[in-house]
Amino acid sequence: MSVRIEKVNSEIKKRIIEIITEEIDDPHLGLLSITRVETTKDLRESKVYFSVLDDNFSIALNILNKMKNFIRFHLGKKLRLKILPELIFVSDDSIKYTVEICKKIDEVMGKDNNF
Q: Which residues of the chain have pLDDT under 70?
């Protein structure tokens, strides 16, 4: 991945976080975090990976998809790009997976300590 694309990804992530926290007031989003952004080389699409603490991925995805044009409009105001990428929101359950693995490790370690 080129340095330019990495900078674009970082800036899009930062700005989307700002837009969601400052402009969108929806309690159904809960504790939502943007985990990463992957933009195509031609800057036509950006996959925006998100995670939610309360496992309401489908609700959050629905809200984000409904707000996509709003988010993109405000993103266009904050970024100076010739082409503003289309946003594609994707649920990222890697945090949930990591928590489950840690719990299993704790269970195994706890059982080993009993011997």
A: 55, 111-115
Domain count, the chain: 1
Q: pTM of the prediction?
A: 0.80
Q: What is the CATH number of the domain that holds 15?
A: 3.30.300.20
User: DSSP letters of 2-25?
Assistant: -HHHHHHHHHHHHHHHHHHHHH--
User: Which CA distances in Å does 109 have to 99, 106, 114?
Assistant: 15, 5, 9
Of 19, 31, 34, 9, nearest to 94 (Cα)? 34
Q: What is the pLDDT of residue 115?
A: 47
What pLDDT shows up at residue 98?
78
Q: Which domain holds residue 84?
A: 3-113
